Amino acid sequence: MFSSVIDQDAPTRPHIPIDPRIRQRLVEVRRQEGRRRLHILVGVSVAVGVVAAALGVVHTPLLKVRHVRVAGAGAAVPAGVVLHAAGLDHQALMVDVSTSSDTRRLESLPLVAIATVTRQWPGTVRINLTTRDGVAVTGVGLGRAVVDRTGRVLAVGPAVGAGLPAINAQVGTVAAGQWLPGSPGPGPAALAATAPGAPAPAVVDPSHPLAGELSLAAALGPAVRSDVQAISVTAADGLVATVGTTAVVFGDASQLAAKIRGLAAVVAHGPLVGVTRIDLRVPDRPALSGPAPSAAATGGSGG
Q1: Separation in Å, CA 36 to CA 27, 42, 238
Q2: Among 279, 185, 184, which Cα is nearest to 239's?
Q3: Per-residue pLDDT tens listing for the chain (303 residues)
Q4: What are phi and psi of 221, to 5 degrees?
Q5: What is the topology classification, in CATH, of domain 64-131?
């Protein structure tokens, strides 16, 4: 059986009355803390809602890539190759387009020097390309390769490089996208040299036979390049270009622009009939020569 005993002698805590103004202040403080917590909770909820809504909007099919505008590729790089390299040959969302990754993949294409990728919301991706132009071919058969002014290999195969001069140098086995041994390779100098009219960059090893040949092939320009069948380096004459049956001697790689102007002036006068050699080592005074005249042509006799 439960029982309780109240000790009448136990001390009791005295009741201290609280001033009504202090009580009111305490109530107001608690109310302010409650409102502040409510505001924080509402703010966080709104932020989460906004982020969720934004993610939902950018990932909706309404913001997929609808148009890809490609400029600068021309016929050199087919549109399908560009789209595949950039990962845009399938339905993609704008938010998933990585401009930096797409740029790296596009610039890995042998024919592409510079690529820029930009997004234009809500559904357009723009791709601008600077392509490389072949200036010469190396090798023969299956090892035949087209190279640009920086030594970049643009294409490999027995039928590539029609109309380009052949560089007679042993370069070994190369693949599209690589650089020929001794050429500048990737870097600012090689990249700057892709601009129209820009000079070819210096090769890594000036003593490499490719140094002069690549520089001359790049400097020829389309108008003169089509007349040149081959470029070689000889111990006696240095750089020599073959135009039909005529050997054009450039000597070293200095004053190439002036020497090429001299060649263009000679070619402009008409076919090089009977001319077997053009010496351009003194650019403003090209020296033309042909076979020595026979005795019959000079009226000579045997005695």
Answers
A1: 14, 10, 87
A2: 279
A3: 444 444 555 555 555 666 777 777 777 777 777 777 777 877 776 666 555 555 455 445 567 888 899 998 777 888 889 999 998 888 788 888 889 999 999 989 999 988 999 999 888 999 999 888 888 998 877 788 999 888 889 999 988 888 899 987 666 678 898 887 766 666 666 666 666 556 555 554 555 557 778 888 888 888 788 889 999 888 899 899 999 899 999 998 889 889 999 888 888 877 778 899 999 999 888 899 886 443 333 344 443
A4: 80, 155
A5: Ubiquitin-like (UB roll) (3.10.20)
